[in-house]
Write a structure and sequence with these properties.
With 234 residues, this protein is of the alpha+beta class. It folds into three domains: 3-79, no CATH class; 82-144, Cysteine Rich Protein; 155-232, Cysteine Rich Protein (Ribbon), CATH 2.10.110. 24% of the residues lie in helices and 16% in strands. The chain has helices spanning 3-20, 37-41, 74-81, 137-144, 203-211, 217-223; strands spanning 50-51, 58-59, 65-67, 70-72, 96-97, 108-109, 128-130, 133-135, 161-163, 174-175, 192-196, 199-201, 227-228, 231-232. 22% of the residues are buried.
Length: 234
């Protein structure tokens, strides 16, 4: 092999190794004449263009991704090896967002990490997690069933709560304690209440609501039940 060809082989070797992500300094430098000792022992390499192992496309040098001796085109590499965004299902190149406490399941593009329901951003970095996904306050509480059932309020409940959830509690919603009022006269019901049609009433208005309704004896008795108001602290 002529001296000039040997030099080219060394340069090509370096280029290939650079593309493939191997360390170029693993090639022994023979001496001051510029010849690489390793290049003489290796067979000559084909041109830098390679074929993708998966899709058989010809890959230009800048698009080659090497994975355990399989040359892949950039698209196949991205498709097979990069994590997929849980919102848009596309692969994530570069920074992925998830939660440090592991409550968020999977990873997100930075631009996809928004309320899963309404796509509102989280400008101060605070978000709510429901079913492993990020939500804004409103949609978290909507899914969680923790918006105040008082028709004039409807806001999220994050502290103390009065709950009519469950048939044994009247089958209604949850309330801020100050919102837990008679549905007719709006007087506070912080000690006792009655439930008619899943809504809370004072005794007088529960009687009036009951009188407006027909029903079996057991239904009338259930509506007449005086219930203790329990404020749950969270
Ligand atoms: Zn490919
Ligand atoms: Zn995405
Ligand atoms: Zn939202
Ligand atoms: Zn309320
Ligand atoms: Zn009342």
């Amino acid at each position: 092999m002529a001296k000039g060809e040997d030099d080219d082989g060394g340069a090509q070797e370096m280029l290939d190794d650079f593309i493939n992500g191997r360390k170029t300094d693993s090639i022994a430098f023979a001496g001051e004449n510029g010849a690489y000792a390793a290049s003489a022992a290796l067979p000559e390499r084909p041109a830098a263009n390679k074929q993708c192992t998966l899709c058989a496309r010809q890959i230009s040098p800048s698009d080659i991704r090497q994975t355990s001796n399989m040359p892949l085109c950039r698209l196949c590499y991205v498709e097979r090896y990069l994590p997929k965004c849980r919102k848009c299902a596309k692969p994530i190149e570069g920074g992925a967002v998830t939660s440090s406490d592991g409550k968020i399941v999977g990873k997100y593009h930075r631009d996809c990490f928004l309320c899963f329901e309404c796509a509102a951003p989280f400008p101060d970095g605070d978000f709510y997690v429901y079913d492993g996904k990020p939500f804004c306050q409103l949609h978290y509480h909507t899914l969680n069933g923790s918006l105040c059932a008082n028709a004039g309020c409807g806001k999220p409940i994050e502290g103390s709560c009065v709950s009519l959830v469950g048939e044994e509690n009247g089958g209604g919603g949850r309330y801020h304690p100050p919102c837990f009022n008679c549905s007719t006269c709006h007087s506070p019901l912080l000690e006792h209440h009655f439930v008619v049609d899943r809504l809370p009433y004072c005794e007088a208005h529960a009687v009036r609501r009951r009188a407006q309704k027909a029903g079996t004896a057991s239904e009338r008795e259930e509506r007449a039940k005086k219930r203790q108001t329990i404020i749950t602290k969270r």
